[in-house]
Amino acid sequence: MARVLAYTSPARGHLFPLAAPLLELRARGHEVSVRTLASQVEPMRALGFDAAPIDAGIEAIEHDDHAAKSQQDALRRSTAVFARRAALEVPDVQAAIAAERPDALIVDTNTWGAAAAAAAWGGPWASFQPFPLPVGGPGIPPFGPGLAPAGGLVGRIRDAALRPILVGVLERTNLPPVNRIRADLGLAPVRSVDELYGAAPLVLYFTAEPFEYHRATWPANVVLTGPMAWDPPAEAPAWLAGIDRPIVLVTTSSEFLDDGRLIATAFEALRDEDVFVVATLPAGDPAGFRVPANARLERFVPHSAVLPRAVVAVTHGGMGATQKALSFGVPVCAVPFGRDQLEVARRVEVAGAGSRLPASKLSPEALLAAVRAARSRGEGARRVAEGYRRAGGAAAAADAVEQRLLGALPLA
Length: 412
Description:
- By secondary structure, this protein is an alpha/beta fold.
- It is built from 15 helices and 13 strands.
- It folds into 2 domains: 3-226 and 392-406, Rossmann fold, CATH 3.40.50.2000; 238-389, Rossmann fold.
- 43% of the residues lie in helices and 14% in strands.
- The strands form 2 sheets. A 7-stranded parallel sheet has the order 3-2-1-4-5-6-7, sandwiched between helices. Strands 10-9-8-11-12-13 form a 6-stranded parallel sheet, with helices on both faces.
- β1, α1 and β2 form a beta-alpha-beta unit.
């Protein structure tokens, strides 16, 4: 059996999806080591992984995109964090490789320095992609603002005109520091965002059609596995059994984004509806919220315990929470605040699996209308769930790792 080393950014929203295929690889007899954020080292060890923290300096470089003045500024700020972390990731990954002597390496798509170190290492490696892949293609709108696909000549003209504006600013800002790192490692420069996110020998893309936009052909190195709807082991709360109304799940980002007003607005919007609101605030403080009689606010509740009884999920548009709801066939009302969330929310709308409400238009009245609209789109959510099931999930990801990365290894 092989030894696999996984390296993540300091984000639970990236670590948790990866846990599912890593557990599958471990169940198949492979040894798995994980380098991740310090708070999750012990939970990963409890799962049977050889876990250790990433460099503390990486975690100290925090997102500040909640202070952005525009969506484009927010995306620029968010990706600039990855560029600043990259220089610290290189020696961190090199030390982990020296300590673990892996047969294969799996790195977070947002760890640009780790990807460079993996390429320079020379062994088999993959990246994992838990949010919309920012790689262009015919009919695929430029990444960032959540544009809907537009077909025909008009669509091609729009995409060609906007791509240098929307993606070009990210390339001009972030590629130079990444390429300085790559040059120090003896690697050729990356010339575009497409190469930055799509050049790994294997890209494990944690989604599937029809949630993702259809492409006539996918790059040969990209494997769509469906989402990894994994929760940390936890008992379902006792109070959940006492709820006798349809449940609306409301959740915010696991990394601070100042999106708590989504919960406050949901409480106001749904206080007179015949539903019970279960809200989670993983990166915020539940104190100070006015919780109505038909609601409950917790920092954490395992969503897998709530979703089988949910009729709609109100999310911040994070890929993990959104796809987890859809994997249960639960329609989503997505209210994006920044980062990749605008792209996720648009995919919810285009797939007919829910509704989209820009955060700039968030109000109790608008949210109530959006929730009601999403609730009427259960058929679309179930269609997405079926697409996810066909993709194969953790087993498909483990198959790809075994066949494409470990298949050429000599037998033990």
